[in-house]
Write a structure and sequence with these properties.
By secondary structure, the chain is mostly helical. It has one domain. The protein is built from ten helices and two strands. It has a two-stranded antiparallel ribbon with strand order 1-2. The model has no long low-confidence stretch (mean pLDDT 90).
Length: 206
């Protein structure tokens, strides 16, 4: 059969990937800030729409909801694709699409976040162990440095190593994590400069 219902089989992967990109384009930082009556995160702090910048509003609950929302939107399309028995390359494509949707959202003139939480959600959909290793890396570095960006950069650097150890039978998933890691580091390039200059802001220990 060359059709699945009313949709040609050859178009099914395209529909999944486009739908994942649209889901990724939903910016929870902007939505939740509006619900809380907070300033648009694009107009304050770093201008980033992610949880770290939302946290600068002083509303921890808004930041937590942003974090959970961004991670959930990364996990959901990947999980649905797996449950629908999509081929490995399609699942990887879905994961990459939702990640790029967050970075370059069509609903906000392609100006999105840095993708840390969404990437974690994608990894969780593919492998809970890889996601756990990346999360523990982030938590460890943050506990030592109290710098969110540094924690994300180190986790992104090590994520391909975790993928190589845990996902070697799944090359498309390994490539997905490598691509996400490269873009995560690239999106943090201004933070890297500030870290090297000693001017990067962090969260002081109480």
């Amino acid at each position: 059969m060359d059709e699945l219902g009313f949709v040609p089989v050859t178009l099914v992967p395209v529909i999944w990937i486009v739908a994942a990109y649209l889901v990724g384009s939903i910016s929870f930082g902007i939505i939740i800030s509006k619900v809380y009556g907070l300033p648009d995160p694009r107009t304050v702090g770093s201008g980033n729409i992610g949880a770290t910048n939302v946290a600068r509003s002083g509303k921890k609950s808004a930041a937590i909801l942003t974090l959970l929302g961004d991670a959930f939107k990364g996990w959901l399309p990947v999980w649905l694709a797996l449950q629908s028995n999509m081929l490995m390359w399609v699942v990887a494509g879905v994961g990459l699409a939702v990640f790029f949707g967050h970075l370059y959202p069509i609903f906000h003139r392609f100006k999105g976040g840095k993708g840390v939480a969404t990437a974690l959600g994608v990894m969780l959909g593919i492998s809970g162990w890889v996601a756990l290793a990346a999360l523990l890396t982030w938590l460890l570095v943050f506990a030592i440095s109290r710098i969110s960006s540094l924690s994300a950069i180190v986790a992104a650097l090590l994520a391909p190593v975790f993928a190589w150890v845990l996902l070697s039978p799944y090359p498309d998933y390994m490539r997905l994590i490598v691509v996400m890691s490269v873009f995560l580091i690239w999106r943090h390039r201004s933070n890297i400069k500030k870290i090297l200059d000693g001017t990067e802001s962090g969260f002081k220990k109480k």
